[in-house]
């Protein structure tokens, strides 16, 4: 597993950064503005379809292996327009909450997909009690300028003991943003146990891959 993670030399950082204009943005303010424009005329969803953005279905297919009980209470962190929620629902999971910091993305979420939909900045402390969820899923949100490694502490805190966190990390930021170190530290402290870690297709048509990781939480 270690070797596989260190094989992340497929592309130089700059090569990936140049793949999509959003990867050039640095601040939350810039990112929100970008999504405000991208969601006009449903363009975000249209692009994801055109680009064959496979991350929601890839992540949900791994999630299913470890969450056989469809009564699992799930938190979709950085839910965007709800593509992951839609995929979860297709597979029989209905107890879903979603959160995102972009109002324009949230506005595109189909009605009644999530039981609760929160506007939350995942780079800050989340105002949920400890051990609120059985499982957390976070797709496409650990990427350039978006959500940073300390968010994993908060996700772990709000996840129950024995629950799991499934997430993607854009390969271009895995080391640059310190996800490699953060995950190693959390494994070393025994709070996370990695069950799956592999390179996923993610947005293959744009030549961008992501690490797909599923960890269980030990408290
Ligand atoms: C590429 S989209 C992925 C959305 C959805 N998970 C999907 O797979 O289609 C990334 C999402 O992360 C959200 N995001 C970025 N920074 C965030 C932050 N600090 N807190 C909460 N959400 C954030 C964006 O608003 C956007 O909806």
Task: Provide structural commentary.
By secondary structure, the protein is an alpha/beta fold. It has one domain (2-193): Vaccinia Virus protein VP39 (Rossmann fold). The protein is built from ten helices and seven strands. The chain has helices spanning 2-6, 13-17, 28-38, 43-50, 55-66, 83-90, 103-106, 151-158, 171-174, 179-188; strands spanning 74-77, 96-100, 116-119, 133-142, 159-170, 192-203, 208-217. The chain has a seven-stranded mixed beta sheet, with helices on both faces. Helix 5 crosses helix 6. It is globular. The protein starts with a helix and ends with a strand. The mean pLDDT is 94. S-adenosylmethionine (SAM) is lined by residues 28, 31, 35, 55-56, 78-80, 83-84, 100-102, 105, 120-123, 139-141, 146-147.
Q: What's the Cα radius of gyration?
A: 16 Å
CATH class: Alpha Beta
* Ligands, deduplicated: S-adenosylmethionine
- Low-pLDDT residue intervals, each spanning 5 or more residues: none
Q: Please give the count of helices.
A: 10
Task: Describe what is shown at a glance.
With 219 residues, the protein is an alpha/beta fold. The protein has helices at residues 2-6, 13-17, 28-38, 43-50, 55-66, 83-90, 103-106, 151-158, 171-174, 179-188; strands at residues 74-77, 96-100, 116-119, 133-142, 159-170, 192-203, 208-217.
List keywords for this structure.
219 residues, alpha/beta, Rossmann fold, binds S-adenosylmethionine
């Amino acid at each position: 597993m270690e070797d596989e993670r260190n094989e992340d030399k497929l592309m130089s950082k700059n090569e990936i950064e140049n793949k999509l204009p959003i990867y050039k943005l640095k601040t939350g303010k810039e990112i929100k503005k970008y999504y405000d424009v991208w969601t006009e005329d449903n363009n975000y969803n249209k692009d994801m379809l055109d680009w064959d953005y496979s991350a929601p279905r890839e992540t949900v297919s791994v999630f299913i292996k470890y969450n056989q009980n469809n009564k699992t209470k799930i938190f979709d962190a950085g839910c965007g327009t709800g593509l992951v929620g839609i995929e979860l629902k297709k597979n029989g999971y209905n107890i879903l909450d979603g959160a995102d910091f972009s109002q324009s993305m949230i506005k595109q979420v189909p009605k009644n997909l999530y039981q609760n939909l929160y506007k939350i900045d995942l780079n800050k402390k989340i105002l949920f009690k400890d051990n609120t969820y059985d499982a957390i899923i976070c797709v496409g949100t650990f990427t350039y300028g978006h959500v940073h490694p300390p968010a994993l502490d908060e996700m772990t805190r709000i996840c129950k003991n024995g629950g799991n966190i499934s997430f993607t990390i854009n390969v271009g930021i895995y080391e640059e943003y310190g996800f490699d170190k953060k995950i190693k530290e959390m494994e070393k402290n025994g709070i996370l146990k990695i069950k799956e870690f592999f390179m996923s297709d993610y947005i293959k048509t744009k030549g961008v891959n992501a690490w797909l990781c599923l960890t269980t939480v030990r408290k």
